[in-house]
Amino acid sequence: MTMEQIGEASENPFDNGINDTPISTICRNIEIDILEMLDETNLPPKIEPFNDVLL
Are 55 and 16 in contact (CB under 8 A)? Predict the structure, then answer.
């Protein structure tokens, strides 16, 4: 039963859950890095954690 629950919890690692990969934050950081390399000054804000969780 425990293995089944672990399997279900890890099936979709990009669903913006507490234990999931924070894909939105990763993408935003990549966007900011690329814009900085292009010497852009109008950068989007970094995504802040919500209840200590990055989404």
Answer: yes
- Domain with 21, as residue range(s), is 1-55
Q: What angle do CA 27, 29, 30 make, to 5 degrees?
A: 65
Q: Tokens 């209840």: give the residue.
A: 51
pTM, 2 dp:
0.70
Instruction: Judge contact between 15 and 23, C-beta under 8 A.
Output: no
Looking at the structure of the chain, the number of domains it has is: 1
13-33 tens-digit pLDDT: 877 777 788 888 899 999 999
